[in-house]
Each structure stands twice: as structure tokens, then as C-alpha cells.
Model the fold of this input.
Amino acid sequence: MSNNHQRFPYNPYNYVSSSRQAELRTRAEWLVVDRMNLLGTIKMSEFGDILYRISDNTHYGTNTDEKAFSWCAIVEFLYRTKITVSNDGLVEANIDRWGTGRSWGHILISFTDTRHGTAGGPNSYTDGTLADAEREIDAYERQLAGVGLPFGIRNDGDATASLNTVRTMFAFRNGGFAGFAREWNRVFLGR
Done:
């Protein structure tokens, strides 16, 4: 088993051959399409099931890089298409209440995302502890376009989702894809 996921920055694209990437991308996109309703909407709870399916699927064996690549391909697919993700099943504290309509933007995160701690470095939440991450997220959520918000206002749902995403990345770093899937389901779906 590869330990690439324990080194940061972590980019599974670097550890999966291009021919295998094409096959995994097709499988990943099918996992999403298979769970959408006729209106092109998928529930947040379906992603928890998808994560467990990737984690348990013998097609990947114990290859963490391939599992992580598959998750990244799913996130890319969501950004590339007009699929709607509903908050159904999501623990309410993670919901963005500022009406952006995209609560999933801080929850369905690729391992290559540099803002939620997967890339390491000076702008990474994972450089320190969870308490460090919480302070950094809080400071970030109290500003809009770099300007401080008045009266200590912050987007609590965004902040909670971001911190929970960091939790899932810590779990990935320590427990591989299975740890990530378990923690994601726990913090976002309460199961």
C-alpha cells in the first residue's frame, strides 16, 4: 500500500497512471449519475454512501491513491456539470445560511484543494492542530473579500463545514481512505 497520502501536498493524480485515471474517472462519474434523481439532483446523504462504496470496493483493493483519485474525479464532475446537490441528510450545522445555494462547496472537497488543508504549506489548516485550524477558519469567515465584517458576523455554516472538512482530512492522513469515509459520514451526516 502506498503511503503517498501521508505526505503533503497530496495529489493522487501523481500516483495513478493516465490509462487507469480514465477508467477510474468513468467509474466515479457513474457512481454520481447512478444516484441522481430524474431532475439531476443528488442528495448529500448519497455521497456518504458513495464514499463507503469506494472504500469497500475490491476493484481498488487497498490502493489509497486510486480511491482518493476517484473521490477527486467525483468532485471535479460536480463542478463541471449542472448537477444539483441537495442538503438532504446533511447535519444542519454544516449548512451555509447565507443563501449561496452551494453548501457542498465546503464539504465535497477534492484532496487537491489547497484551502482545506490537503496541500500543506503556510496556507494549510493541517500545518498545526485542529485548534489552529479552528482559529484560522474563524478569522477567514469573519471577512468578505479580505474586508472584516462588522459586529463579529461570520458565516457559521461555512465555518463548521470547513472545520469538519479539516477533520476529514486529518482522518485521511491518519487512517487512509477508510478513515476519511468514516469521518466524513460522522461529521456531515451524523452516522
User: Anything to note?
Assistant: Residues 75 and 110 are 6 Å apart (CA to CA). Residues 156-189 form the longest helix (34 residues). The chain has a mean pLDDT of 82.
